[in-house]
Design a protein that fits this description.
Blueprint (H helix, E strand, L loop, with lengths): L5 E2 L2 H7 L22 H10 L8 E6 L3 E4 L12 E11 L4 E11 L2 E9 L2 E3 L14 H12 L3 H8 L3 H9 L6 H11 L3 H8 L3 H4 L1
Length: about 210
């Protein structure tokens, strides 16, 4: 099931671009009111395409969104797409309610990505194929840092006194970073060990 790569209606786009609490050069201040209720069937339609989504839960309320990226050159920069965070509420048929936040990315009228947070659970697109664990996020960062410095896996393994296998597994996200190895990697990268621990998501308690 693919959530992205679909066309958004003009009404949904207007609701996603309605930011009354944000002042920027491309928008009238205050902006003309728009109908935010068009987002309810849009969000519910996307969520109900998920095969495991509980149909008893629906998005009942939404508030104006906040832009995370704007494709208009806002603040002297430019982005190839717009990404908006839209808060709201979901309710079950039994009356239970939970906070809801949708993160919607789009370019023009084309949906690029959708992520929902229901309560404290994040629903979003997976990186790994179905049935496989998601890679640890440190994998992308480590791969980028090594590539920027021109450090191949063989050299990283030699300099850390490890075999190539754990380095490959770290770069693929199949192995969680652990403090001792991170300290060795930090030296090879020429970075502070504390910085690498933070990047890897390890707090001080775990590093002791």
């Amino acid at each position: 099931m693919v959530i992205a790569d679909r066309t958004l209606t003009a009404e949904v786009l207007a609701a996603l671009r309605y930011w009354p609490d944000v002042i920027w050069g491309g928008q009238k201040n205050p902006p003309d009111p728009v109908d935010l209720t068009v987002l309810l069937p849009f969000f519910n339609g996307v969520l109900q395409e998920l095969p495991w989504w509980n149909r008893d839960w629906t998005v009942q309320e939404v508030e104006p969104g906040l832009p995370l990226e704007i494709d208009s050159g806002h603040r002297g920069g430019s982005a190839p797409f717009t990404e908006v965070s839209v808060p709201g509420t979901v309710r079950s048929c039994g009356g239970e309610s939970l906070p809801f936040v949708a993160r919607v990315g789009f370019a023009g009228d084309q949906l690029l990505g959708f992520q929902a947070k229901i309560g404290d659970v994040v629903l979003g697109p997976a990186t790994a194929p179905a049935g496989h664990l998601e890679p640890h996020p440190f994998a992308t960062v480590l791969t980028g840092l090594m590539d920027l410095r021109g450090i191949p896996v063989k050299v990283m393994a030699r300099e850390t006194g490890r075999s190539m296998s754990p380095i490959h597994m770290l770069r693929s996200g199949r192995h969680n970073p652990e403090p001792l190895l991170l300290g060795e990697i930090a030296k090879v990268l020429g970075m502070a060990e504390a910085d690498v621990r933070v990047i890897a998501g390890l707090d001080d308690d775990r590093s002791r």
